[in-house]
Structure prediction request, 360 residues.
Amino acid sequence: MRKLILILSILLITFPIYSGYEKTTHRVSDQIIFMNETYAKARDYYLHDNYSKALPLLFDIINKYPDKILTIRVYALQYRYKAGPGALDMIGRIYLKTGKIKEAMECFDQMYKKYPDDNFIGAFTSLATLNYGGIAGAEALCCEMWILSGNFQGYEKYLAGNKPDYNLSIIISRELIEKYNGVTRRCYGDCENYEETAADNIVFCLLAEKADIRKTEGEIRWTINHTKNRPLQASLLLELGNICHEKKDDNKAIKTFMEVVDKYGDTYYYYTADNLARFYPIEAFGRILAILTAEKRSDDIEKLKGDIALVYYEFEQSIEKVKKRRKDYSGITKEHLNRAMEENIYKYIDLNVGEKKDIQ
Prediction:
């Protein structure tokens, strides 16, 4: 489904809302061609860390023609975007790399407010890195929340001396969820939705600031209540249960894990690119079994066996129904289900369900 969404989004932004090319072209390679020389030069300077030459050109774009349509040809694909968002993105990242954190935040804030729903393409170097870009407003909010949390992948060393503001980072994460919930980030393979990216940041902030359980549960449940993404909801509940266990509240942990079983008993997610799957209620049962085994509560373990077997059976039937409907089916299989049982259940108990077999 996510691959279909990605293909549709590429088609939507590939076909023209603009006719004709700019008069000048800049060939990066036989595969990548920019039809605007100023933008292309600025991008080259940026990629080679020559910021003193990149910035004047980027500001020239922002001041003179931020809404000019920028045409980029990558292999057989052709993209048309406004020049402004990409220029602001590079300016913000230059500020980050040169220690001007406040200016970077202001730049990304401008990018969010001026281009909330415009697509843009980043300063990629090849088709393999074409995932750098997306919806300008959403990507700008991502940059802001990561700067504030100090968890900006690839930019950690530039934020080393900057004091994190976890509360403000969480506030921006909430804004990202509210405005871009259900929107898929631009990438190839298994692409996250923006609410998943924001949720990861919220959990990171809560753990980094060592928030108490009341605040932690409040933020996690707020996130759950503001998305319809069931795999994300189940995953967040599992995370909350883990945190309760780490804080030595095993009764609350077990209750939370059982909530996963009760509310998301039919929920799983398949990672196409890695050929891996998550079965959330089976993971929850595994967490409960780990606690009960450590506490030597054999009677309580015995009571769970029937529930675990029932969940396994329902997943098994669901997989078979999908396979019968689709002759070309190449997704989740019974082997994935058996692997989940091996990793979460069979190491604690023997259970006569299915064939205990790993995927080769």
About this structure: Residues 1-25, 28-32, 355-360 have pLDDT under 50 and may be disordered. Residues 248-360 form one domain. The longest strand covers residues 69-74.
